[in-house]
Amino acid sequence: MDWDKLRIFHTVAERGSFTHAGDVLAMSQSAVSRQIRALEEELNVTLFDRHARGLTLTQEGELLFRTAEDVVYRIRRTEKQLLEGLETPQGELKVTTTLSFGTTWLTQNIREFVETYPDIEVQLLLTDQDMDLTKREADIAIRFHPPEHADLIQRPMMTIRQYIYASNEYLARRGVPRSVDDLDHHNLIIYGAQNLAPIRDINWITQVGRSGPPRKPFIRINNLFGVLQAVKAGLGLAALPEYLVRGTANVVRVLEGVSSPPSRAYLVYHESDRSTKRIIAFRDYLVRKISEAEF
């Protein structure tokens, strides 16, 4: 099978149209279309269903795309390995972590790494949903729960606890809670989609000190940075990690002796990358920065 045609087919399947694929490949729409038609004639199959809104893969096209995806991945992986043979760590490094950790601690502490390794192209992918490292959606992850996939290396990093915070304005209006029982009479701001929470037991504030049903929240927000903004706005009390609140004006900790169960953070990357220089460089840098920090 002609590799050049297979490469063009893979790009068309990814982009969904001859025009968009041509933009990526620096080819005209008609040239891309001719190459796909020639490949279909060689294989004696129809690879795409053509319609007004674009292209969709046929069953035969899906089969070929899975094979092409594997070939493209292996070639890109080989390119990375060849680059890693050079003395200086270089190449793209996609780092994923939660919105709250990424937008605060990580962005505040990554400048030295970027300046030290200018040939590493760092891309931060911040989301509370786990990106699939086995499918190469990212190269390395900082997660607040252990990974479940056997092919992933997990290095324990730091232990995180959450504490209860409120704004001075809210406490002046509603009073300061003196015990966990007082939480029954306060507005509680909690994380939304529990099944997608980046930290286990993230909404422990609704259950702490209770043996019965959990407390009813005042409002749910689907990321911790948004929860912090709601606390600053005086909506109520919330459980937050200290690294997120640090330096925030007019937000104070209440119930000093109360905290969440400990949650471990992990540095996660694929087993096949254990010798990759840019992964090693980022891992060692992160270990050093975390050892210097307080959590």
What summary fits the major beta sheet?
5 strands, mixed
User: What fraction of the residues are assigned to beta strands by DSSP?
Assistant: 15-25%
Question: Main sheet: which strands, in order across?
Answer: 4-3-5-12-6
Number of domains: 3
Q: What's the average pLDDT?
A: 89
- Give the proportion of residues in helices: 25-40%
The CATH architecture of the largest domain comes to 3-Layer(aba) Sandwich
The number of helical elements comes to: 10
Listing every helix as H and every strand as E from the N terminus to the C terminus, the arrangement reads: HHHEEHEHHEEEEHEEHEHEEH
Top CATH class of the largest domain: Alpha Beta
Spans of 5+ residues with little confidence (pLDDT < 50)? Answer: none
Structural class estimated from helices and strands: alpha/beta
Distance between the termini: 55 Å
Q: Find the count of extended strands (DSSP E, 2+ residues).
A: 12
Question: Could you outline the blueprint of secondary structure elements for this entry?
Answer:
Elements: H1 3-15, H2 18-25, H3 29-43, E1 48-51, E2 54-57, H4 59-84, E3 91-97, H5 99-109, H6 111-116, E4 120-126, E5 140-143, E6 152-160, E7 162-167, H7 168-174, E8 188-191, E9 219-221, H8 224-232, E10 237-241, H9 242-245, E11 251-254, E12 263-270, H10 277-292
Parallel strand pairs: 3-4, 3-5, 8-9, 8-10
Antiparallel strand pairs: 1-2, 5-12, 6-12, 7-10, 7-11
Helix pairs in contact: 1-2, 1-3, 1-4, 2-3
